Structures are given as structure tokens and as C-alpha cells.
Amino acid sequence: MFTGIIEEIGEVKKIEKNAHSMKLAIAANKVLEDAALGDSISVNGVCLTVTKYTSNEFEVDIMPETFYHTSLNDLQTQSKVNLERALAANGRLGGHFVSGHADCTGEIIQKRAVENAIYITIKIESNWMKYMMEKGSVAIDGTSLTVFSVGENDITISLIPHTQKETVINQKRLGQRVNIECDLLAKYMERLLTATEKEKGKKPITLDLLGEAGFL
């Protein structure tokens, strides 16, 4: 589990790409201070397992599912990536609950400066738009952000100066892909509310059922 508060920006040093998978070597410092084999590190919002490491570099394997359904396949040597270690039990939840399991990718279609903020509009696959709401949370390349506005098939986020400097999002160009993870709690809630009668062994939770029970 992660929080979406990026700890540092790493750099891809080596890529071994196969037909349906790949291996990355990433230069980093802070996220390796207490590293151990098998640790989880979020790389651009994707939870990956440390398979090898030194004091300033670590390696991860990317399986076919991740290869095809995230933007990690777009990385090149010297690409910059957002890095975050898994949340410690005594840590502060400064962002929101982020699993590191990207739901889809989005495409940057607009960037504009407004005073000290950068507004970035991202096109998202239509079937994921139902989880987007103004002032709601979304993880973009692993960064916990607030949705500034919602369009028909896109969202706009606003980057403060700190986020512009400490994450890779502002470095990306129009047309580039980013990893999108929708709010975890919203997805669980939808699943509970729409589970079938067969799955739950009872009536699904609907507004009518809530009304009958006196909750509405």
C-alpha cells in the first residue's frame, strides 16, 4: 500500500526488453536507504518488487500484464520515474490509499500555466470516468492528486510548485501516457453495491433497499 506522496525521482539506467516482459535497473537513493530483497517500490504508480539492489540502484521485473497495461513499456534509458516505498505502519497518510495497481493509462492532451499552478488535462478511457469526481482523489504516475475538473472523457489536475518540482508529471509532453489508478475505496464500494444476488446470497444493495431499511 502506498500514499501517492512521491519520495524521489529516479532514472532508468538499463532496460532488458523481451517480447512480453522487461527488466528495469533504476538509479535511486532515498528509497534504497532501508531496502531489502522482495520490497515493494512504486515506479510511476506501479507496484514492483525489488529483485536486486545496491546503495544507489535497484532492479525490478515487469510481467506481461504490466507490460501491456501500463505506460512502463514507454520508458527509455534516462527516463525519469516517480518512486515511493510502501507505506510503513507508523507513517503518515499524506495522500490517499494507493495500491500500486494501475487501472488504465491516460493521455496528456493539454497543459497550461495559471499563476503558480500548472493545469494538466488527461484523456481517460470512458469506462473509468465513473470513478472521477471534482475534488476527488486520483493517482497519476503514482502521485496522489485532486481532480480539479471533470470532462466527458477527461480530467484536469492542478500541480502546485512543489509537485511540479518533485514529480515527473510536469516533465511529460502532450501525447505522452501516464498511469491512472482510480480511488480504491470508490472501486470497493461499487463492487459491494453491485454484487449480484448469487454472489452475496441476498438482495443487492440498492437505493430502494436502503430506503426500505430506513437509511434514506
UniProtKB/TrEMBL annotation:
<keyword id="KW-0686">Riboflavin biosynthesis</keyword>
<dbReference type="InterPro" id="IPR001783">
    <property type="entry name" value="Lumazine-bd"/>
</dbReference>
<feature type="repeat" description="Lumazine-binding">
    <location>
        <begin position="1"/>
        <end position="96"/>
    </location>
</feature>
<keyword id="KW-0677">Repeat</keyword>
<dbReference type="GO" id="GO:0009231">
    <property type="term" value="P:riboflavin biosynthetic process"/>
</dbReference>
<keyword id="KW-0808">Transferase</keyword>
<dbReference type="InterPro" id="IPR023366">
    <property type="entry name" value="ATP_synth_asu-like_sf"/>
</dbReference>
<dbReference type="GO" id="GO:0004746">
    <property type="term" value="F:riboflavin synthase activity"/>
</dbReference>
<feature type="domain" description="Lumazine-binding">
    <location>
        <begin position="97"/>
        <end position="193"/>
    </location>
</feature>
<comment type="pathway">
    <text>Cofactor biosynthesis; riboflavin biosynthesis; riboflavin from 2-hydroxy-3-oxobutyl phosphate and 5-amino-6-(D-ribitylamino)uracil: step 2/2.</text>
</comment>
<dbReference type="InterPro" id="IPR017938">
    <property type="entry name" value="Riboflavin_synthase-like_b-brl"/>
</dbReference>
<comment type="subunit">
    <text>Homotrimer.</text>
</comment>
<dbReference type="Pfam" id="PF00677">
    <property type="entry name" value="Lum_binding"/>
</dbReference>
<protein>
    <recommendedName>
        <fullName>Riboflavin synthase</fullName>
        <ecNumber>2.5.1.9</ecNumber>
    </recommendedName>
</protein>
<feature type="repeat" description="Lumazine-binding">
    <location>
        <begin position="97"/>
        <end position="193"/>
    </location>
</feature>
<comment type="function">
    <text>Catalyzes the dismutation of two molecules of 6,7-dimethyl-8-ribityllumazine, resulting in the formation of riboflavin and 5-amino-6-(D-ribitylamino)uracil.</text>
</comment>
<dbReference type="InterPro" id="IPR026017">
    <property type="entry name" value="Lumazine-bd_dom"/>
</dbReference>
<feature type="domain" description="Lumazine-binding">
    <location>
        <begin position="1"/>
        <end position="96"/>
    </location>
</feature>
